[in-house]
Amino acid sequence: NKGRYEHYMQKEIHEQPESLTTTMRGRLIQGGSCKATTVLLGGLKDHMKTIRRSRRIVFVGCGTSYNAALAARPILEELSGVPVTMEIASDLLDRQGPIYREDTAVFVSQSGETADTLLALEYALENGALCVGITNTVGSAIARKTHCGVHINAGAEIGVASTKAYTSQIVVMAMLALAVGGDTISNQARREAIVDGLYDLPSKVREVLKLDNEMKDLAKQLIAEQSLLVFGRGYNYATALEGALKVKEVSLMHSEGMLAGEMKHGPLALVDENLPIIVIATHDACFSKQQSVIQQLHARRGRLIVVCSKGDAASVCSGGSCRVIEVPQVEDCLQPVVNIVPLQLLAYHLTVLRGHNVDQPRNLAKSVTTQ
Ligand code: UD1
Ligand code: M6R
């Protein structure tokens, strides 16, 4: 039921404050003498020791689910101290890449039925790894075949383009990072800031959804473009990949997400006054590096759209003209949840304006059950 919305994708974008609340419900437990919040992921509690002791954590997924894992990787590395590697499911299978008994392999899938991810799971099971699922679908093949896991509880997602599942997946993996990391004196302040950030996230997402009209206006300006680049780095490398994936899969406009640190190693040659480029430059440890990327793009007369933290407009766009989209700032590792929302809205409006099918894009299926 689409309710008051015209399309499922639109409904699912706008219901993210609620889906995120459901994802976290019952999993952040406040109390005890020291008032600290503990994270309870019921499905993992009997396996936490094994996960903490593993030699490596390997994320496996496809498409948006892979991007969500990429967004969560830095915080999992930081809090757990365990090396985290990334595998696109089909590539792991193509290479028959090494998976060991000492590994924890985490399979991320909205549907829980994606053929490549499922085959990669079978491969990891054969190789003796602890296999953890992060799925939205209770009773799905991946939920059944993994040793343990977490349901993201985002509610049914109908639109082929994954939106609310993406943000809920990131939140589950941030909670996973808190759970695996455990309590130490040295990371106490950081943990508290992340927990506070999680509690605040639904209201920050509600706030960023107010950009709807602004993103529609931007979509009108971009309607006839051939191509759109998205540059991000650090926590928001994933935002660049996921924003570009949304734009290409529904609006049928060519779009590529790129690591800003790679700009000088090739993509810079594409920059001219015509090609629109979105730069994600919200405030975090990479901010000054992104400012210098923006300056270099200005120097080549790049046509820039900058996503920055509220209040940073003047400092991101000094020395050139650009369109600025200001988003609320949250704890750095949760910022990808906020930052993807304007790009989801842009992809949605571009698609409607270009007259394409939003909920069932050409040639795509919601669940890719063949290889
Ligand atoms: C569970 C209940 C939830 C209830 C809560 C109360 C289910 C599906 N969930 O949620 O309704 O409100 O207890 O304490 O009944 N699993 C996998 N692979 C996956 C995903 C999950 O093996 O990909 C397993 C988990 O290890 C766990 C079970 O499925 O054994 C349920 O997972 P999850 O729903 O995340 O657990 P809870 O949040 O504890
Ligand atoms: O159901 P899954 O999360 O395993 O699906 C993985 C991809 O097929 C999926 O995310 C795909 O990239 C989406 N259409 C993206 O919006």
UniProtKB/TrEMBL annotation:
Top class in the EC scheme: transferase
EC number, UniProt record: 2.6.1.16
Gene Ontology biological-process entries: fructose 6-phosphate metabolic process; protein N-linked glycosylation; UDP-N-acetylglucosamine metabolic process
Entry GO MF terms: carbohydrate derivative binding; glutamine-fructose-6-phosphate transaminase (isomerizing) activity
Pathway: Nucleotide-sugar biosynthesis; UDP-N-acetyl-alpha-D-glucosamine biosynthesis; alpha-D-glucosamine 6-phosphate from D-fructose 6-phosphate: step 1/1
The entry's keywords: Aminotransferase, Glutamine amidotransferase, Repeat, Transferase
Signal peptide range in chain numbering: none
Domain SIS: 47-186, 218-361
Catalytic activity: D-fructose 6-phosphate + L-glutamine = D-glucosamine 6-phosphate + L-glutamate
Top-rank taxon, per record: Eukaryota
Protein name: glutamine--fructose-6-phosphate transaminase (isomerizing)
Species of provenance: Linum trigynum
Range covered out of full length: 308 to 678 of 678
